Amino acid sequence: MSIPNGSRRMTAMDLRRKIISVLKTEPLDAVLAAVWSLPPRQAVSPLIGGLSHAGGNVKWHAVSALGLVMAALATEDMEAARNIMRRLIWSLNDESGNTGWGIPEAMAEIMASHDGLAEEYAHILVAYMRKDGSYLKLLPLQRGLMWGIGRLAATRPDLLRKWGAPAYLLSYLDSEDPEVRGLAARASGILRIEEAMERLSDLRDDSSEIFLYDNGKLEIRTVGQLAGEALA
Fold first, then answer.
1. What pLDDT digit, counting tens, does each position of 120-132 carry?
2. Which residue from 78, 110, 128, 172 has the fewest beta carbons nearer than 10 Å?
3. Residue at 26 is within a domain
4. How many domains does the structure of the chain reveal?
């Protein structure tokens, strides 16, 4: 499915509804094709709107699409891309009045997709892990952050090491929340954190089930499975 060519004459609200509909009903490759038919600047805001949708694929497909769209925008106009990144960061600020659902995931996907934005903003993603930094207290935001650290670790591990992410990641392995624990275990394995091995070994018996978004699909995994894979 594609967004009609006449979308340039659609209102912003109509365009947002159309993109949300595509995010809800289409597989990721169709979502990307639809979004790719739009100028990057036009696609950004509706995709950011999709980040706050709970359940299903809407949020996750918005995350994936936003990474590619922002990479294209940064290639075309780096300052415009920086402005969007600042907008995302502001939405996680208490003063913004927003909760920032989906924002850590989106920031990580964007940085995984573009070298320049990663160089400029990776330290901010790490700061969200730090209790002496811009610590994210809400568990749903921590889940997104742990997914984001794992996503960025898969493409730019040296940047995360540069900013000390491995040391801050260890405490998340002891989280009361299974999703935070499991995603932290996964990220620890990707970053090959030797100090995490004992705790990962303990977590292999953790049968808590969580959802993992990977390669465009949501799947159910256990914390123990992710810990075992991290050790391997």
1. 999 999 999 999 9
2. 78
3. yes
4. 1
